[in-house]
Amino acid sequence: MNDASAGAVLVAGSANLDYVVRAGHIPAPGETVLGRDFATHPGGKGANQAVAAARAGGVPTRLLAALGRDPAAAVLEASLRGAGVALTAHRDHGLPTGVAFICVSDAAENAITVAPGANAALRPEHLPPLDGVGHVLLQLETPIETVAAYARAAREAGACVVLNAAPARDVPEALLRLVDVLVVNEGELALLAGDAADLPAAMRRLPVARVVVTLGAAGCVALDRGTLLRQPAFAVPAVDTTGAGDTFCGALVAALARGLALADALREASAASALACTAPGAQTGVPERAQVRALLVAGAAPSSLAGSTA
Ligand code: RIB
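Above: the input record for the complex with alpha-D-ribofuranose. Below: its predicted structure, written as tokens.
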């Protein structure tokens, strides 16, 4: 059920149909691996994050994405509808819905290649009015000029701008300066900050007030206007980590939209992303809000964070 008291979350970004093969291990360059079962799942970082904000985070959520006029789009629409996400879809471009080819290993790790298709057609002029939107969540699977234009419009409208700088790529400093909360993994941080050998130092080098770094099984750290926060991961039996980072982002922004402090939002996001690893598929793995609450109550990770000045 949505928390209607929270300002809406607008996610603007990619939507893909994921073609997933399970295999013993992810192939090395030049290697062919004989995999096992094959499945298609609704995915795409933008759509995954929207499903997470709505289903795991329980806030009113809208998604702006570009879709084709094809059966893959119908799969994505059904998933978004099922999660209660309000979709604004741009379709007048003649391109197919984006697809991702994913190998998931027995160690639950993945390797992903995306053919952007329609995602490449998302343009600045497609942004809907931001009335009632408190948080705008962006990623980097759509053109970076579009991401920058949306961040600028969100900043001008007084919304909180959250950027998940994934997949890893250079981001202009002018765009980073429009961001209120940046979420990255270690590789993405290293690219943006030069290196990430010293995490707090790397986070401090970025021109963003709040930087969150996800560390997989090691949890996450955040620099919150100079204060360092650490959140351990919740221990779960992982079967597929695809979309775990997206679930983290969506749940984090939903928690911030419900007025939680960053430390508490990190704990919720960590619980949601841990649960996302226990089921196959990106959007199919996003947990219900009740499951997140139950894990938080069970308290498999500390309930309070040690804050220190970085
Ligand atoms: O983050 C996982 C997602 O990355 C997948 O769903 C795939 O579509 C790619 O966008």
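Notes for the reader.
Residues 14, 16, 18, 43-45, 48, 100, 112, 114, 141, 242-243, 245-246, 282 surround alpha-D-ribofuranose (CB under 6 Å).
Residues 8-14+44-96+120-308 form a domain with the UDP-N-acetylmuramoyl-L-alanine:D-glutamate ligase fold (CATH 3.40.1190.20).
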